[in-house]
Amino acid sequence: MAVALVLGLVFLCGAAAGALAMNSGLHARLHQPAFGTSAGNALAFARLQKELDLTPAQSEQLESILNDMWQYYRTVLSDSESRVEQVLTPEQRQKFKRLLQHQIK
């Protein structure tokens, strides 16, 4: 009985700590938006602006360069995905798409 009570208290303490972490915003900081998404790109750019202490002119130029880079990245990824899918069977394509979705998240 005492062991069950101790385990129950430990569980409740863990749940309370998790709830506090979620409410404090810790969860959001640990789970940043994915690279390649507009939110992820904006976050990465904001961090660069802050860390590098960019001037407004530098920020404008860097944003343009990074937008080009992200567009290139999406194009290469899409082209590569199409080439891989040409080699796979329909069942393998479905599995491949699921694997990609897990890698991006």
What does it look like?
- There is one protein chain.
- With 105 residues, this protein is mainly α.
- 85% of the residues lie in helices and 0% in strands.
- It has five helices and no strands.
- The radius of gyration is 22 Å and the shape is flat.
Fold topology:
Blueprint: H1 2-23, H2 26-30, H3 38-52, H4 56-87, H5 90-104
**Which structural class is indicated by helix and strand composition?**
mainly alpha
Please tally the β strands and state the result.
0
Strand % is under 5%
Radius of gyration: 22 Å
With helices defined by DSSP (H or I, 4 residues minimum), what is the helix count? Answer: 5
What global shape is seen? flat
| Mean pLDDT value | 84
Largest sheet: none
List low-confidence stretches: none
Helix fraction by DSSP (H/I, runs of at least 4): over 70%
For the terminal residues, how far apart are their CA atoms? 43 Å
Distinctive features:
single chain, 105 residues, mainly alpha, 85% helix, 0% strand
In short:
Helices cover 85% and strands 0% of the residues.
